[in-house]
Amino acid sequence: MSTDTASAADRVAAPPPAGWEEARSRVYAAGLAAALSAVDRPLAEIDGHTLAEPLTTRTDLPAFATSSVDGWAVRGTGPWRVVGRVLAGGTPAPLTDDGTTVEIATGAMVPEGASAVLRVEESTRTPDGLVRGTPRPAPEWRSPGEEASAGEELLPAGTPVDPALIGLAASCGHDSLRVRRQPRAALLVFGDELLTAGPPAAGRVRDALGPAVPAWLRRYGCVVRPSDVVGPVADTLPAHVAALRAALTDADLVCTTGGTMHGPVDHLHPALEALGADYVVNTVAVRPGFPMLLARLADADGRVRFVAGLPGNPQSAIVALVSLVAPLLAGLQGRPMPVLPEATLAERVPGRGDYTHLALVRLDRAAGTAHPVRHVGSAMLRGLAVADGFAVIRPGTSGEPGDRVPLVPLSLLPGERSS
């Protein structure tokens, strides 16, 4: 059988593309099944990681009654005789006698026996040193356990770690937390026609994905070093196999750009076959970005790694990132499946027949509406640069003004919540 005949037969026998929503669910499940190991890390090192265990507080929060104002901790009715002073960080003696008071600073521990805290600006001192004033009816201190009780779960496993979470953990008494190891990612750029510097010329185009994709991966929580970006890789099967094998040595995820079809220099599929990979998803019924894929490789020791094949057209590659890579990485990090917000269309967005249409839109947040943008060809990035996300137009439909549709946001950062 000739090569052309064999290729035609392979195309006929190929399974139909996965539906877009099905593909997202499938890759998320694959990532969750291969979730990365949990490690203990100091609080200073966990920004961008993911909680592997629920965050609980080690004590009541606050652990003891603390004054919320500068003033006087008093016992009984006034006037009060001053018997001491307590600052933040000190442990005061109890107030045992009515008519006594201690000067107290904001954040200081309220002494046992105090009946109220009188604000300093609402107090006076008599010539003989007594304190007078009328305490407010509501207590001027934070009660133990007011924010949380000892052992209470504050945030579930799977929560992305951000600066607010780190501060909360410290206030609960933690010095370190158990988190998921961050995914290590690499990028292989395929295409002899690509330039890595200067303007396009003489039939060669500038590589836009080599500089951009690592930044997207970092926003999804990956570690990508400069040395993890390789290319352009020569358009030969041996070069593709060698580059993939080398990248997979350390990476949990290898993204590739281009070569996802079956053209004369598209070597990704045969390279994956040579490496013994199996497909989680092989093409998706979405426009743009149809020829995307996700493959899985498993070592004898159980280690699982993934290859995400991104189309060579730049916007199509970003569609593949938000469609396959983002859900996969959520699963690998033990995070919930990203829940898509909704937006109201301000203008008509055409459908793409049996395919899901991911249409770039700009959000008018004041009006709460989504507007299609211009320059949205699969090879264009101008529209992407001014857009806030992709409106999801489901198969067999079109988006009409006033319709509420799912939105794939383009602003997801490591610490943003998934739901």
Layout: helices, strands, pairs:
Layout lengths: L2 H11 L4 E2 H14 L4 E5 L7 E2 L3 E2 L9 E2 L3 E5 L5 E6 L13 E5 L11 E4 L3 E3 L5 E3 L7 E2 L10 E3 L7 H9 L4 E5 L4 E6 L3 E2 L9 E2 L2 H11 L9 E5 L3 H11 L5 E5 L10 H7 L3 E5 L1 E4 L5 E6 L5 E7 L3 H19 L9 E4 L10 E9 L4 E4 L9 H5 L2 E5 L10 E6 L10
Parallel strand pairs: 1-21, 7-8, 15-18, 15-19, 16-17, 19-23, 21-25, 24-26
Antiparallel strand pairs: 2-14, 3-14, 4-13, 5-12, 6-8, 6-9, 10-11, 20-22, 22-23, 24-28, 25-26, 25-27, 27-28
Helix pairs in contact: 2-7, 4-7, 5-6
Protein name: Molybdopterin molybdenumtransferase
Catalytic activity: adenylyl-molybdopterin + molybdate = Mo-molybdopterin + AMP + H(+)
GO molecular function, one term: molybdopterin molybdotransferase activity
What would you note in describing this structure?
Among the domains are: 3-17 and 182-332, Molybdenum Cofactor Biosythetic Enzyme, Chain A; 40-60 and 150-180, Alpha-Beta Complex (Molybdopterin biosynthesis moea protein, domain 2); 342-409, Beta Barrel (Beta-clip), CATH 2.40.340. By secondary structure, the chain is of the alpha/beta class. Helices cover 21% and strands 28% of the residues.
Largest β sheet strand count, sense and barrel closure = 6 strands, mixed
Instruction: Please identify the top-level CATH class of the domain at 3-17 and 182-332.
Output: Alpha Beta
CATH superfamily placement of the domain at 3-17 and 182-332: MoaB/Mog-like domain
**Which percent bin holds the helix content?**
10-25%
Give the spatial strand order of the biggest sheet. 18-15-19-23-22-20
Strand coverage percent: 25-35%
Distance between the termini: 52 Å
- The coarse silhouette is elongated
Structure summary, number of beta strands: 28
Q: What ranges have pLDDT less than 50 throughout 5 or more consecutive residues?
A: 1-12, 413-419
Helical segment count:
8
Rounded to an integer in angstroms, the radius of gyration calculated over CA atoms is 30 Å
Q: Mean pLDDT, as a whole number? A: 91
The name CATH uses for the topology of the domain at 3-17 and 182-332 is Molybdenum Cofactor Biosythetic Enzyme, Chain A
The CATH architecture assignment of the domain at 3-17 and 182-332 turns out to be: 3-Layer(aba) Sandwich
Structural class label: alpha/beta
